[in-house]
User: What shape does this take?
Amino acid sequence: MSAHQFDEFERRMRRINRRHSKLSQGFVTQVTDDGLVVAKPQKPRGYAVVRGAYLLLLVMFLFKGFLHSNLGTEAYEQQVDGLKNGNAIEQVGAFAMTADPVTLWISSTITSLVR
Assistant: This one.
């Protein structure tokens, strides 16, 4: 095999390996007009970040609702007020843990289910 043929072979192998690595991340098959089935790389979706943020928000609201239901309104507000008087991180936590309508609804739902 000559050097030119070897270089051509190497270029073709690199191209095939790149395509294979793209297809290993997911692919969609399409049938062309002549009946040939072609696999094309699947485009990445940006939903993972949104789904993760939504899940984190949901878990936070459920946690706040369970905590509010377990402690009661007065004790929960005392704990949040204690956080408001703390350092900067505790103040951010107090802002996040402040009872909102969603938290109160979750708390009342949990309380009605338990009793």
Observations:
- Helices lie at 3-23, 47-71, 73-84, 88-97, 101-114.
- Residues 65 and 106 are 5 Å apart (CA to CA).
- The chain has two domains: 3-41, 47-114.
- Residues 47-114 form one domain.
